[in-house]
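Data deposition worksheet. Section B asks for the primary sequence of the deposited chain exactly as it was used as input, without tags or linkers unless they were present during the calculation. Section C holds the resulting structure in token form. Section D is free text for depositor observations; keep each observation to a single sentence. Incomplete worksheets are returned to the depositor.
Section A, Depositor: J.P.
Section B:
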Amino acid sequence: MRFYVPEWDDAVDANYDFEHDELSTLDRQERELNYIWDIFDRETTPIDGVLISREQVEETKKKAERLAQYGVYDDPVLSVPDWLPTISDCGAWGYKSLPFPPYGNEEMLDFYETLEVSVGVTIDHLVLGSGKDKGRLYLDERAFGDGFEESDIPDALEDVVDLMIDEWPDEWPEYVDEYEPSIQAEDGSSVEPFSSGTFRGDIDAVLTELEHDPRAVYRADDKTFRYNLTLRNAREMYELYQAEDRPFRLMVAIQGWDPESYVEAAEEVLDIGYGYLGIGGVAGSPVHEVRKIVKDVGKTIKAFEREHNRRVDSHVFGFAKSEAFETIGRSGMSSFDSASMLRSAWTGGENYRLNNDKRYDAIRVRYPSNGDDLREAVEKSLRGREVLVSLRAYDAENSIEEEIWNWHRKAEEVLPATRDYLRDQRHDERYNASRLQDIETAFRDDFEYARELQASFSDDLRGRIVKLLREDTAEDPIPFVEYDELLTVAEEEFEKFPRMPAAFNSQEHQNPYDHVWTAVRDYAEWIGDDGLLEEYRDTLRDRPWEKCECPICETNGIEVCIFRGNDRNRRRGFHNTRRFYDEFAAELPKLLVAVEGTAKLSRFESIEEYLRSEHPDFWERVHDLPVAEVGVIDAGGVHESWSGTPSTVSFSPDRVEENLAAQTARYQKLFLLTTGGEASDAISGAVEQSGCELHTFSESEALREGALDACGRNYVAGDDFVPHPPELDVREGLDVLVIDQCSGSKDIPEGAPVFDADETLEFSKEDLLSRDNVPGIAARDLYTGRQQGFVKDAARRLRSQGHDVERYFISAGFGLVTEEELLPPYEVTFSSMNVGEIRERSRLLGIQEDLRKVLHETDYDVVFFTLGSDYYTSIDIDEMVQQVRPDRIGVVFNRELVGDQFENIVSVPARTEDAKNHGTIVVGLKGLYMKNFAQRLENVDMLEPDNIEYLCRHVEDGPTQAAFEKF
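Section C:
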């Protein structure tokens, strides 16, 4: 499994001056730029490849020309390491508002070859839906502006047609002529402007007229057109690719609008012959929708692989959510890409990622705004400088007050020195230049306080001085008072500083945290970020930058947790990517499955052909494995199954060790099939050197089992690891786990003390039970609600049939408790809390952690979550159901989105109308369903998710009278 990051010019200044917020050089062409692969070494780089879209390549003419000249690996700026594979696509999101992709198939194949990428992708067109009632209308943006604007289009048209307005290319690819010959204008022809008359009149008549207009394309069913066009490109590009010897691998991109349409597309392109399939159009989609699509496409691919004895790689474009790792892995996806964890560093809160469960807010220290006058800009800079000094002192565990005074003493020298320098040097030849950048560079290099001038007194002040220097000449001097007025404004603002030492001295407590908190709070309230103070408090108290061992945090410390400018924020994005990659590798381990090659290797065109012929049993057992890469080892290292065979074959031990050591450093485990079950010294030495674990096998079946076991427990649920509905033999007896909830109705002895929400948090259960007159009541007896009574009866019935039942309660007072656990009387319920309060109380009670442990350690066949919505919130049900083993069944209620995503999870409707049908009220309905289940289970031999709903809620002859039984 490989993770690719999109290339969007995400680079930082390698020599950035954090102290003064200064770039190493003002000329970008002269800077040493670091991409993520430059900051980390080969073994720790948190990506497995780079996705390069044509849209991004052609963002500027200079970049396009440079990459066309050098390719992505030899480009002096991008300089992708040769060990990182690259995928290139068209960038369909960039032209989604156009009626057609602006590229042709042959043209794209040539583009990929010019860039020298590893993989090229077929041309797809995002399926955006069919449009509004009457479809979708595309308009050429170039036809607006001559007295007719987009806002002049009648509302009546916009109400019924989905408008897509974008600048069309000067020339469309040739294939467009087959669909819309009217828009193929001659080269160099001008676009006639729209007029109000173009859209006036009956809407149907207008749309009919626009069908032949060179500035418009109208489709009543755009969804189907885009879908079919994507498949047409797949067919044509495959034929062109097969007819020529291209040096890259071809991936097919498929589009769709639901799982069924994606499956149909997958079946068609697999029949064409593609061995690498990319699922497009899911970026930004809800995780539950992506799960369903990936799961169904994955099943389709696995069925094809097993039927044809082939291996098909698959990719998910633009999607990388850790909560979907299990689905992506078990569905057999080979790779995915996303920039979301990089972008998260500057696109919202919780922008410093420590792990999936713990994220922090970087502390915003803002630059002056463009609209600020000089006085405002200077004050913002001085306040920001003071808080930055405080943060750095806190990080270094130095005296914050002392560091602020050190800064102040240095800063008070700046303005007098600037005045003296300008008097002496303002007419120097170095300032005889027309470009402001050249003058600012000269000023920054020659004047020793130039950096501190910007850092403390703003870029605005320094910029104004530089502009005066450009105009100021010995022949035509500017009155010095113009400089003096600028500096006087800065001096007047500086007189108010330092501000913080007085605030520190007024505090009762004198410690670094209190001092830094005072500085941060004062600044945040002044700048308008006081809504983030609670998040800032967590960041400062926990000091998360010290808990990360990535080179970014180790080198830059607290700077990574400061939200301020590209060179901090993007580094934090790289850090976030590293932390995400660690979680990815833990959930989807990096596995390599291989066999040692033989001299026959070069006789075959591809590694897959060689393995099918020379190692048929090995190939049969491993070709469909998820997560892992499959290949052959020789002196060149590992050759993956999809690749061509080497022209010459060598097994030189020295070369084997050298190349294999470099490659296996990117893997956690190598599963190797050998004749005698032992690896050669060269292979053993290479793997030991790289830190990868070596597992050797003499039997292919044992190797397969070992690889699936390494993937995790969800992959060893039978030989077919792809998600399928489990089947449970009821006749052998079931282990049933019930996760019930506490009730407002409780059996509390008269006169017993009743504890509230604060007391149950402040004191342990044991402490409360040890008090005088406090009874200990078993949880199953304490809760007397209608649902709890039904569930108790169901448990008795199931046990009488020979099934084992374990029952737990989610208690808003004491967390997760067993039904036998003794509890003191209390009165706490989640129903009185909002979502944030529920989550916080759940965290304090450790509910999710305890429940996750139960689900992992309890041997159950079926687990019922008989909980209401507030209690579902307390356990994060959407995440918790993923802890249910795939060969076990989980039952939830009123969570259709959850049930649709997983083959082993069933959601049973339990709403007011259902309660009426069963002659009860909705509060007790889930318990009644369990009672029904227990009564009817004795007539069932095999239990599957699909028949659980029937067992729970089938109504035979009117309302169930048993619903009115008293407990």
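Section D:
The two ends are 54 Å apart (CA to CA).
Confidence is low (pLDDT under 50) at residues 958-967.
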